[in-house]
Amino acid sequence: MRGLKALLFDKDGTLVHFDRTWGPAAGAVMRTLAEGNPAALKRLEEVSEYLPDEERFLPSSPLVAGSSAHYGPLWAEALGCPADKDFLGLIDHLFREGGLHHLTPIGRPAEVLKHLRDAGLRLAIVTNDAEASARDQARALGVLSYFDAVHGYDSGYGSKPDPGMVSAVAEQFALEPQEMAVIGDSVHDFTAARSAGARFILVRTGPAPVEHLYGEADLVVDSIDDLPAHLLEAVPC
To answer: Which domain holds residue 29?
Structure first.
C-alpha cells in the first residue's frame, strides 16, 4: 500500500470492542427509555435485534453499523413518541454515558496509534457514533491527541455508508483520496471508503461476518495490532 499518507479509523468494532462496550450500554439505555414498562422494553429489544440475556446484538441489528439517525426512528415508533431532535439527542446522551462506563478497547490502540503517528501518518476517526461520544472515548483510551480529525454522524458530513466524512478528511488534510485508507469492520466502512475514492483496510474484530469483503479490501488484518507490521514500510520518509 505505497503512497499512503493518512489512516481513517472507524471506531466501534475497530478501536472499541462493540459487544463488550455497547451490549451492556444499550441494555441500560433501553431500560431507561422504557421507564419500567416491560412491553415497551420488549419492543425496543425486538426492533434492535438485541439479546438481553447475552447483552449483545444480532449481526443484522440496525445498531451494529448505523447511527441514532438510523435506528432512532425505530425506537421512537416502539415507544410511541416522535423521532424529533430532542429524542435523538437523549439517545446520544444516554449512549455517551453508557459507552464510557463500559468502554472496552480492542488490542493496544495507544501503542499502535503512537507507532503509526510517529512514522508520519496522519490519523482521523470516522464513526457513526456522535462526535462528542467518539472524542470522550478516544480521550478515555488515551489516544485523542493522535488524531487530527474526529468526525461523527452529527459533525455535518453525513454518516456512513455515505462518503462525506471521508471526503471531508481528504479536504482537511489536503490529500488525494487514494492517499488515505479507511480502516473498518463493516460494509458501511467499505462503501464509504470506495465511494470517496479511498483505500480500505478490513479488520476482523467487528460483530458481523465480513468474509464477503476479503476479496474487495486492499488489506485484511486480524486487528489494528497488525497494522504497523503491514504499513510502516510503506510510509514515505
So the answer is: 18-101
